[in-house]
Amino acid sequence: MTVSTETRIQQRNAQLKAITERTQMDKSHIYTADKLSEEKIRYLADHCQHILDVGKSSREKFAYFKPGQAVTLDLNQYGDYPDIIDDLCDLQTIAPESFDGLVCLAVLEHVYDPQSAVKNMYSVLQKNGCCFAYVPFLYRYHAPADLAYQDYFRYTRDGVAYLFRDFSEVTLYPCRGGYSTILNLMGFWKHRVERTFGQSINKFLDRAGGLLNRNRESGLQASGYFIWAVK
Known about the structure:
By secondary structure, the chain is of the alpha/beta class. Helices cover 34% and strands 20% of the residues. It contains seven helices and eight strands.
């Protein structure tokens, strides 16, 4: 029996809805992104034997890993990294299930084919392997003028859920509330205002604004999302 177009679309919409709904939203670190990053990278350092750090995106926290525990991946050589030069969207040099931990912070907006990139991240992880990632949502364009790297994409809750749909568990941690996210679009906000006043000013503005529009407190209007995904 041939399935009608209407039925097929309804089935597809139900599948997509289920993918989004099974993705957890944890709003406990809206104003404590540094603490969350510290906790997750220390967890990987304490529980994983082989970690892939894409773009050395753990940055100064790379020092938490023991010698030989983590290797880095990037398109080009930058000083002392990467250990592996390859294209995350077209990975050629890493065998499947080579790692039990993966870090990919603020990288996926810069890849030209995020679906292939996340598929490859999934592939190189072992079963029950953990991935700690970050993607921007409401954030300004930030590629350099010489286009040494590009700035391609932004990600909603639904978009992240779909990209990471093959993982068995996915939790998103939104950064900033609805109103502080708007202010963070201005380049000076993070580097001047937040450094001076910390997150207290963001909390005040978001709470005051929430009295007018509580939908902005849902975690769906954020500057970006940290992602904890388990294969």
